[in-house]
């Protein structure tokens, strides 16, 4: 089973963190607090996050500097960042947020429903990627063990392939529905690009599975990278 996604909330004001928790609690995910950029970077050393909500105006290391550190780390550079700011200095200020690697830039006060909807998109994408990695791990195990299944000793390779194919079909169906939802909701370009990347990974995994079917060839297919 896929565990709950973790969402990192970064703000130096406790009342703002409390408000964000109230807004996002309906998503039923794990909300992690950080009261500074330094604290956020420490949390990112050990945990994986679906999305980061990052306040721009913080004492010491501000949001822009924090985002720059996040994007420089290979482990964290692909985590979506949504900037939150109480001030708006016009297009130049907004551009600086996107240049720092943010997928969105929201001015306070913001619509709670809109923020929750935006975060939910990235949580869904994260969950789909987790499912894809699980399917890829099962496929690699099948390739490396010559047909011995991690789901139970003694299962025939054909039976394992059928189960893997069924699981992958479920993920493919969910990914397709998510892509249609993104189109309908006019989501940001970053979310659409992430969904397209997920679909390409699913296509590669489907080809690898098809190549294992009896009569399709004796070579060992390459399992697509999940990075």
Automatic annotation (TrEMBL):
Gene3D superfamilies: 3.40.50.2300. SMART domains: REC (SM00448). The modification 4-aspartylphosphate is found at residue 55. InterPro entries: Bact_response_regulator (IPR050595), CheY-like_superfamily (IPR011006), Sig_transdc_resp-reg_receiver (IPR001789). The keyword Phosphoprotein applies. Residues 6-123 form the Response regulatory domain. The keyword Phosphoprotein applies. This is Response regulator. It comes from Streptomyces macrolidinus. The lineage of its organism: Bacteria, Bacillati, Actinomycetota, Actinomycetes, Kitasatosporales.
């Amino acid at each position: 089973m896929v565990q709950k996604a973790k969402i990192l909330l970064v703000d130096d004001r406790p009342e703002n963190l409390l408000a964000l928790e109230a807004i996002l609690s309906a998503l039923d995910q794990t909300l992690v607090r950080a009261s500074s950029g330094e604290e956020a970077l420490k949390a990112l050393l050990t945990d994986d996050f679906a999305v980061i909500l990052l306040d721009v105006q913080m004492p010491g290391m501000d949001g822009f500097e924090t985002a720059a550190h996040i994007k420089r780390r290979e482990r964290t550079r692909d985590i979506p960042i949504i900037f939150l700011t109480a001030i708006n200095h016009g297009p130049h200020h907004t551009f600086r947020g996107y240049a720092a690697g943010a997928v969105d830039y929201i001015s306070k006060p913001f619509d709670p429903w809109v923020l929750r909807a935006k975060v939910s998109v990235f949580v869904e994408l994260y969950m789909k990627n987790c499912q894809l990695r699980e399917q890829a791990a099962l496929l690699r195990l099948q390739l490396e063990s010559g047909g011995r299944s991690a789901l139970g000793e003694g299962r025939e390779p054909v039976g394992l392939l059928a189960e893997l194919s069924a699981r992958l079909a479920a993920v493919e169906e969910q990914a397709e529905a998510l892509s249609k939802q993104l189109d309908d909701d006019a989501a940001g370009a970053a979310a659409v690009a992430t969904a397209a990347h997920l679909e390409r990974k699913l296509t590669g995994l489907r080809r690898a599975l098809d190549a294992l079917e009896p009569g399709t060839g004796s070579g060992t297919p390459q399992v697509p990278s999940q990075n």
